[in-house]
């Protein structure tokens, strides 16, 4: 279906491989590329050259099976008349990269921009999985704006331990509390954690990985149903083949990220994130993707568009089940089907399938109502992010889908936004300080305490760390108090089930109000007004300013230094400042 003759225009790659004006250079390009086994006839034949942005490796184990799946991507690309060219991306392994993989998201973005722009690629398949592999890839695809399609790796199989489902990350937070309360041994802690990872794939909870792959699908950037297929299922390989086919068609039809990534698509994604109980990391990542797509997205959109959406997915950490059951229940399309029926989704948006989102969602109603709830009978009402501001920060979010009924009763009225909570702050400068002092009786932490952590934002950490979900001291855990309100300028794991106020911007290291709060101050959280303030008068705050900012560690690597010089705050996506001025750069071919 894709003989060269059918492509109505000259392909980008022909500027390298079939350029009579630069015969000498064309000869050089052809000669070297043949090392991968392709022939000059293929390269010069005007066939679409499709990059496979390979995110899997031994050091990116959540995505490692993409090394195998790429074979099916290649089959699809070949059968559609394209030429696959696979190349590695900068690894982004959430669990193991120190001080945090957040530091590397912008680095991976930069690297991929250079590859997509500077090499003879007509389109690209973005292989994704682990948390930041999805946003970094979509950010880059937007900047360059060649036809692109997301191919998710899929979650691990469901984990079981002692007859209970144990989900990635979530099991760690829950076991950590049980261990501190003396309910389980060290060995049981480790065994439960290891049992949560029974196969290839990314985290099987609705953590940041599953969330961001769902966001890619909700944006219209992957084939329908792609996000949730477990990594080990045969459907995953079939989805690879179809994605490969479609990648070539996208080039033929010249469908680019800029045709799909509109404001309407991003608002759809925000609403889907509420309905799946998605990760708070979706906030900076969607913001970053929108920026590079040239789409205006506002920090308050999370509140105005997302807050009132109910929780429909009964998946950990907000619910009970894991990735396999979610997929069998219909996955992301079934969630979107509910939102579409309820008029909470713009079904008219175009997608990489070539059809509108509404077309994609035909007959996608879930048949498993234990796992995917009808919109009218949700797991929880108002499950989106609450947006807060005050004299501690201009912006922070709170993920309401994981706020327990007990906590809601304690602090919220039935309308959800009312309720005022005041507590005494206990302030930690970074996670080392928290670990060193959390059990110190002198801090007098009780059930009315608000735990504050700072120095954990993009500048402070650097990179912004998932440390805001601090657990209460052991003496409270032993009394069954499993969560205290926490506030911080860092993030929290998408797998955490803590009632945290996080992603605060500006961060303390940038001179935000968190820099001037002191242990013992009263903090008032007014859910009704969406405010969070330290009850300290302005004069006193001014006096504290004279003390300067909390100390920040020096940069340890060249990139840390460059990152700090260029990064924006979490409210703005923690992007590279001014990088969004580079838009659709593939329109201008790179010079020879
Ligand atoms: Fe990679 Fe969770 S650590 S997906
Ligand atoms: Mg994470």
If you had to describe this structure to a student in words, what would you say it looks like?
It contains 22 helices and 14 strands. The protein is α/β, with parallel strands linked by helices. The chain is globular, with a radius of gyration of 24 Å. The protein has helices spanning 14-17, 23-33, 40-44, 66-79, 102-118, 133-144, 170-180, 186-195, 208-219, 234-253, 257-260, 263-276, 282-293, 301-306, 323-328, 331-341, 357-360, 405-411, 430-437, 474-478, 538-545, 558-566; strands at 49-54, 83-88, 123-128, 148-152, 159-161, 164-166, 385-388, 395-399, 420-429, 449-454, 486-488, 500-505, 522-526, 531-534. It is an enzyme of class 4 (lyase). Belongs to the IlvD/Edd family. Residues 370-574 form the Dihydroxy-acid/6-phosphogluconate dehydratase C-terminal domain.
Structural class: alpha/beta
- How far from one another are the termini? 32 Å
Strand order of the largest sheet: 7-8-12-11-10-9-13-14
Please, what is the average pLDDT? 94
Residue share in β-strands: 5-15%
Question: What's the number of extended β-strand segments?
Answer: 14
Shape, per Cα inertia axes: globular
Unreliable residue stretches: none
Total of helices: 22
Q: How much is the radius of gyration in Å?
A: 24 Å
Helix content: 25-40%
Give every kind of bound small molecule, once each.
FE2/S2 (inorganic) cluster, magnesium ion
Largest sheet: 8 strands, mixed
Structure, briefly:
With 592 residues, the chain is an alpha/beta fold. It is 35% helix and 12% strand. Strand 1, helix 4 (66-79) and strand 2 (83-88) form a beta-alpha-beta unit.
